[in-house]
Design a protein that fits this description.
Elements lengths: L1 H19 L1 H19 L5 H5 L2 H24 L1 H7 L1 H7 L4 H22 L1 H19 L7 H21 L4 H24 L1 H6 L5 H5 L1 H25 L6 H18 L5 H21 L7 H5 L1
Length: 300
């Protein structure tokens, strides 16, 4: 009997982990720290960055807010996910909707408390961020183009928190941000192509549904071409160390993405394209250390 209760608790833990997409949050936490160390605060000693309590609170507040965002998004997309992701939905359903909402409010409260350690401005920043995530999930997500742009902006918002904290306005940061924004925009549009069945059933007015798959593919092709611009600038006009290898790999993968895109017709094809973009994002996070591999040893 005790074993069954323990098993049930473990399953509920993995269910909540699935709802808040803990693996995504871990990647964002790592990305915020690597961005701070190698880009935003590259002039500071490594120890000062890693042991900075203000930075830790901003990162944890971001993690709590994003986790809450995934919960509220899961709450509103409950029926759609049953169609598009039936296996994941079965795991997510182990935690009740009321429990999810309770966790949502708790996480947002924790985010506000952590932000208050840094400053009142940080509390205002995260309060606006929390509201924006809810408004996106409740209203904007069902709108074509606006929903995609809002989702991409909300995804990179946690990096603005540390960007504002360090007040580093070097041009290279903005070019990196543009590259990331374009890749995330491509991912959002690819997800719309992947989820056409559920979106159509529940009357979501996404780009593929309103304008068609062919127009969506044209828009993705334009985004691929636009992504080449920051890639070219970063590899030729800025000092990014060995990270230029990542951008060469990204360009190669985006060419493969473009070829496969125009041959894609089924959900499984769009899922493969989505995974290519996810790989570029994750690889980009860990490639940040290539900006200066000796930096860690020099700044200890």
């Amino acid at each position: 009997m005790l074993f069954r209760k323990q098993k049930h608790l473990i399953l509920k833990f993995f269910s909540m982990f699935s709802v808040v997409r803990g693996y995504n949050i871990l990647i964002i936490v790592i990305a915020q720290y690597l961005t701070s160390i190698f880009i935003l605060a590259h002039h500071l000693p490594l120890r000062d960055v890693i042991l900075d309590l203000n930075l830790l609170m901003l990162v944890l507040a971001s993690a709590a807010t994003i986790a809450g965002g995934y919960i509220i998004n899961n709450f509103y997309d409950y029926e759609k996910d049953l169609i598009n992701r039936p296996h994941k939905s079965m795991l997510d359903r182990l935690v009740g909707q009321n429990t999810k909402l309770s966790f949502y409010f708790i996480l947002n409260f924790i985010a506000a408390v952590m932000a208050s350690y840094v400053s009142f401005r940080a509390v205002v920043f995260f309060s606006i961020y929390i509201f924006a995530i809810w408004f996106y999930s409740h209203k904007l997500k069902k709108l074509p183009i606006i929903g995609n742009l809002t989702s991409a902006i909300l995804t990179i918002t946690p990096f603005f928190a540390v960007f504002i904290y360090y007040k580093n306005f070097e041009q290279v940061i903005f070019v990196h941000a543009i590259f990331l924004f374009l890749i995330i925009s491509m991912r959002e549009l690819t997800k719309d192509l992947e989820n056409i069945k559920g979106d159509l059933a529940l009357n979501y007015r996404t780009i593929p549904i309103v304008y068609g798959e062919r127009t969506s593919k044209k828009m993705l092709s334009i985004l691929v071409i636009l992504t080449l611009i920051p890639s070219f600038l970063l590899t030729n006009y800025f000092r990014i160390g060995q990270m230029h290898y990542f951008f060469y790999l990204s360009i190669a993968l985006l060419i493969v993405f473009l070829i496969l895109l125009w041959r894609s017709k089924q959900r499984i094809h769009y899922l493969a394209l989505h995974n290519i973009l996810k790989f570029i994002i994750v690889a980009g996070v860990f490639s940040i250390v290539l900006i200066d591999a000796d930096l860690v040893l020099n700044r200890l």
